[in-house]
Amino acid sequence: MMMNNFKSIKDTRITISELMLPSHANFSGKIHGGYILNLMDQIAFACASKHSGTYCVTASVDTVNFINPIEVGELVTMRASINYVGNTSMVVGIRVESQNIQTGKVKHCNSSYFTMVAKDGLGNNSKVPGIIISNDNEMRRFLEAIHRNETKKNRLIDFDSENFSPKDHMKELENYNVKIAL
What we know:
globular, Acyl-CoA thioesterase, HotDog_dom_sf
């Protein structure tokens, strides 16, 4: 299926909200990070599928930092939008906030980037529509995704196991809590 069309980012945004229950808590009484990641994967799938019009799979998850804990009884809201599109892949940016529904206080809990790949009915990669960038923030997010991808590619090249030489990096480790015993 050949797609030469473009979609507006605002047309494929998704927002979900869910009340956090005691069954979602970890041993310290906070909402389990794995549960939040599961919800994030669901909203990334929904956003990418809405944009591409196809089934999508998660290829990678970048920069998952749990900034603030989420409490039982808080309302968690996740907002997802397409930040970047390639030929068959999309980067979905997700912002997670929690709200104390009694006080109204809102906390930013997490921002993350899911790379999703569109699939056709046979499981092959499928072309995705382009995106229409309509403001400075959307342009910034698109460019950030390009830079994250370049950084990831460079890291893979720099630390490729076949070409890695420990002696080239020994000096880098001098100020770290590590003892080299090669």
